Amino acid sequence: MTTMMPITTARYRRGEMHAFQAADSTFMYLVSAGAVFALDDAATNVLARLDEREMPHTELVSALVEGGYAEADAEELIRELRLVQGIVSDRVGRAPAPTAPPADFPLQALVLNITNQCNLACTYCYEFGADKIATPAGKPKYMTIETAKISVDFLLEQSKERKAVHITFFGGETLMNFKLLKEVVLYARGAAAAKGKTIGFSLTTNATLLTDEIIAFLSDNEIGVTVSMDGPPELQDKHRVYKNGKGSYAVIEPRLRKLIANHKTRAITARVTLTEGVTDVVRIYRHLKDEIGFHEVGFAPVTSAEKRAYSLDEGGMDSVLAQFHELADEWLDYALRGQMHGFTNVSETIGELLQGVNKSHPCGAGLGLLGVGPSGDLSPCHRFTDADTHTLGHISTGIDQDKREDFLSRGHVEAKYDCQSCWARPLCAGGCHHEAFVRYGDTGHANLHYCDWIREWTDTCLKIYGALSALNPEFLERFAERKALS
Quick check: 140 and 169 in contact, CB under 8 A? Predict the structure, then answer.
């Protein structure tokens, strides 16, 4: 029988954390807990000493007392820091890894690729990228209503005890199969109600096919809309073109104005793909937010295919990051005044910090979310649709649990050696599975080309979070409530 040593004989070292300054205060982001703590000068100084060496319990208490703590308060602080592994004893190893969800983790969402056809020919589209070829022989280009209904029933069944589920319609160009979309919404609402569940809907579109009828349907049915758009005319038309090379801006601009004016039930979001020559982030944001009227604007830099002419190089990424900082400062200014800003890249990270996320995987792909191709093939997410090497089953026969387990085990953050020394891994978990496959040939590979960028951006968002927690905590409370309802 092993006898435990009394806590007063323990020796402490600093746990895994990232220090940052905000609002004239010192904060610590604790990797083990995915949480942010504000520290006073005495606690900061003690933790700084632990950077250099281990300290016995009694010495640690004495140091805090010298810094102005009562002994009882010093003991309490040590207890709290031990609890969240801000400090760890010589008897404790590395913080436990995030637990992998169980094999029967219930579904929450499906992405229905209701067509893989598109009326545009965007030069950076991943639809027929490195992991797939154009519509494999024998597979349909459009989803049928039978496949769609089976998909809805599958989601409701596999969601188990979840009371709310979600369907995202995707393409190709989603609205090329709008007739099916309408039927699916009506069917899914009735099927969900019969099982005592609620169901929500969203879609992604290039906006070229929007009509008054479609806009009215989207608004009446509270369907969220994300528009793929890259900015003002010369930037939009650089890559987002028709098959004859003609740009798409002039076609979609009046349709977007109608959508934003008449869709009253959900926010309308723009998603910008940043590529070589399309990196003027601030200008793009101003155009889409202030001139067109989008409620929110998010940006996704293309870095996955380094040999592609449109991919951003290191200089392009540096320019993007500098402009992200400019919009982040603006986001904070708005928040300090109690106002919402539309820069999605900040909002998403602040939302995760408020939830205290500590990810086992980069996203819900293969977990609470699956993609469904027009043929009914299941995939980890919409990016892998019709990629035969990544099929996880079929909607009529169910999930291939062996393939799903293999995908998830390789994608777990603990399986990525390069992530183990990175303080940002609770929020990143190694990055996008699809991007890893395209860049490195392995869905479980860490996106190493993106690491420094992610760390700097995460540090920026932490500083925003710290400043708000010190100067306007009420905004964070309202923001968390808003996120919970969205």
Answer: no
Whether the CB-CB separation of 122 and 302 falls below 8 Å is answered with no
User: 293 vs 259, 346, 380, CA distance in Å?
Assistant: 10, 19, 33
- Residues of each domain in the chain carrying CATH 3.30.390.160: 7-89
Parallel, antiparallel or unpaired: strands 378-379 and 369-372: antiparallel
Tell me if residue 196 falls in helix, strand or coil. coil
User: Scanning the structure block, which residue is given the tokens 């039978």?
Assistant: 146
Task: pLDDT band for 48, please (50, 70, 90 cuts).
Answer: confident
Domain covering 7-89: architecture? 2-Layer Sandwich (3.30)
Distance from chain centroid for Cα 406: 22
CATH 3.20.20.70 occupies which residues in the chain? 109-399
In 229-321, the DSSP E strands lie at 268-274, 296-301
**The two structure tokens encoding residue 471:** 């100067």
Rounded Cα gap, residues 192 and 155, in angstroms: 10
Q: How far apart are CA 279 and CA 273, in angstroms?
A: 9
CA distance 83 to 427: 21
CATH class of residue range 109-399: alpha beta
Residues 6+ apart with CB under 8 A from 306: 439, 449
Q: What is the pTM of this model?
A: 0.91
DSSP state of 235: H
Residue 184, number of CB atoms within 10 A of its CB: 22
Q: For 167-218, how does the pLDDT look when each residue is reduced to its tens digit (9 = 90+)?
A: 999 999 999 999 999 999 999 999 999 999 999 999 999 999 999 999 999 9
